[in-house]
Design brief:
The chain has 369 residues and is an alpha+beta fold. It has two domains: 5-163 and 309-351, Triger factor/SurA peptide-binding fold; 174-185 and 214-296, Chitinase A, domain 3, CATH 3.10.50. It has helices at 5-10, 41-58, 60-63, 78-98, 109-125, 128-133, 138-159, 168-171, 186-197, 216-235, 239-246, 264-271, 299-328, 335-340; strands at 13-18, 30-34, 37-40, 71-73, 76-77, 174-182, 250-255, 282-284, 287-295, 331-333, 346-351. The strands form four sheets. It has a four-stranded antiparallel beta sheet, sandwiched between helices. Strands 3-2-10 form a three-stranded antiparallel beta sheet. The protein has a two-stranded antiparallel ribbon with strand order 1-11. A hairpin with a 2-residue loop joins strand 8 and strand 9 (287-295). The chain is elongated and about 75 Å long. The two termini are 31 Å apart.
Length: 369
């Protein structure tokens, strides 16, 4: 528990700025009801504000000043999207708590003590006025950390029921290598020549891309180059060394029939090859691919895929379990409470710690806003 999710939340200091008058939130109101269990408005506000702090600290630079007003789907802005996610997660936490006995899950005295310690660390690290704005009282923080601890243990317990047996045949991966020959226009040739006459600090090259329009002559010139390269590649004993001699870069990729990188055409062509064989040149909008199959079975990549399949099964089992509980439960949401949690009227960021927050020795370091 000491290095769990609760510890991540605890080792931060929140920095708050009131941008406009906020609607008065009564922390004792009920924000969510799941059967006979409830989430208070205070808890909903605190968890929302912490989530808001993460987004504003790490993503505001990408989205700009009107981050929360930006539309992420038809009729739904970013604030509404994040609050909906927070709301759903809180509902899931109650459902997980409700079904703890079915999985023989409980919190040990040591875990409860760690939650108490983390609660004290958080409340001691933040000013009373900031705590009030985010409803971060000891009772609220302790309750959230308890729910997070339960969620972590229940997730592990549910996922333990997933089938972890994956055969080599189910996860089989092959390995190919390819060289990408992009079409070159006359303009790019001229730019390359000009670049040779300029200083190293000047980049005058023109890079071909999928949206460029090329003449038949330009495409034919690239095809001739590809054909010559492929003829030499088939005769070469060492493909990697041959690519180096030709001044081109070969990229290795592991794949199965469902893969799509570098392109579905490349995957389809390589999937029918025998080890060591080359596919015919594969044309795409920006040039040609030369493809060679290196291995019909790559054990390392297959083992990695096995892990991915098991993780997907665990995730699916967890989601299906939660969804089934949702269908059986009576869930009520107090929309008035959630409207009062307004991200645009109160900005919340995190003052960074010098060390990673999940380390035991993490200490908060106030950074000027």
């Amino acid at each position: 528990m000491k290095k769990g999710v609760g510890k991540v939340i605890v080792a931060v200091v929140m920095s708050l700025v009131v941008l406009a008058g906020c609607s008065k939130l009564d922390p004792a109101e009920i924000a969510i009801t799941v059967d006979d269990m409830t989430i208070s408005a205070g808890l909903a506000n605190f968890y929302s504000r912490y989530t808001q702090a993460i987004y504003e600290t790490y993503y505001a630079g990408y989205f700009g000043e009107d981050m929360w007003g930006q539309e992420v789907s038809e009729g739904v802005n970013y604030e509404e999207n994040v609050k909906e996610s927070v709301q759903e997660n809180l509902e899931n936490m109650l459902l997980l708590e409700k079904h703890m006995d079915e999985y023989d899950v409980s919190l040990s005295d040591e875990e409860k003590a760690a939650i108490d310690e983390s609660t004290t660390e958080f409340t001691d690290a933040n000013s009373q006025s900031d705590i009030e704005k985010v409803s971060g009282t000891k009772d609220v923080v302790n309750r959230l950390f308890t729910l997070i601890a339960i969620q972590s243990k229940m997730t592990e317990a549910i996922q333990a029921g997933a089938d972890t047996n994956v055969t080599d045949e189910e996860a089989a991966q092959k390995k190919l290598t390819y060289v990408d020959f992009v079409f070159e226009s006359e303009e790019s040739d001229e730019a390359d020549a000009a670049d040779d006459e300029t200083s190293d600090d000047t980049d005058s090259s023109v890079t071909a891309n999928a949206e460029d329009e090329f003449t038949d002559e330009e495409k034919a010139a690239t095809k001739a180059k590809v054909d010559a390269f492929l003829e030499g590649a088939k005769a070469a004993e060492d493909f990697t060394a041959y690519c180096e001699e030709q001044g081109v870069t070969a990229t290795e990729v592991t794949f199965d029939s469902d893969s799509y990188s570098p392109s579905t055409d490349v995957i389809a062509a390589a999937d029918v090859l025998k080890e060591g064989e080359f596919a015919d040149p594969i044309e795409y909008s920006g040039g040609y691919y030369v493809v060679k199959l290196l291995s019909e079975f790559d054990q390392e990549a297959t083992d990695t895929e096995k892990t991915s399949i098991v993780n997907e099964r665990k995730s699916t089992l967890y989601t299906e379990t939660i969804d089934a509980w949702r269908e059986e439960a009576e869930i009520t949401v107090n929309a008035d409470v959630w409207k009062k949690i307004n991200f645009k009227k109160l900005t919340v960021t995190i003052k960074q710690a010098e060390s990673e927050p999940y380390e035991d020795d993490a200490q908060t370091d106030d950074v000027a806003e």
